[in-house]
């Protein structure tokens, strides 16, 4: 099942994001469940959040994946939302 994770960074946390980026990217690659991923951008073009599409069994698995993300462990996010998602275009 597909889940969209929308995470929004705390204000002024760009350094936290950049410091943890290598571990975050490794996590995305190594877990094998990420179908699409990329940052939200602010008006200046800087990353300010993340959109990640996961293919996992259920919401519990999606939440566990989100909790294990190095960005989450570093306290980067002010808000995280996870929703079941149905891909219609681009399949």
Overview of the molecule:
With 91 residues, the protein is α+β, with helices and mostly antiparallel strands. 35% of the residues lie in helices and 36% in strands. Strands 2-3-1-4 form a four-stranded antiparallel sheet, covered by helices on one side. The model has no long low-confidence stretch (mean pLDDT 97).
Which secondary structure elements does this structure contain, and how are they paired or packed?
Elements: E1 2-9, H1 14-31, E2 34-41, E3 47-55, H2 59-68, H3 70-73, E4 77-84
Antiparallel strand pairs: 1-3, 1-4, 2-3
Mean pLDDT: 97
Helix content: 25-40%
Shape: globular
How far apart lie the N and C ends? 14 Å
Concise synopsis of the structure shown:
Helices cover 35% and strands 36% of the residues.
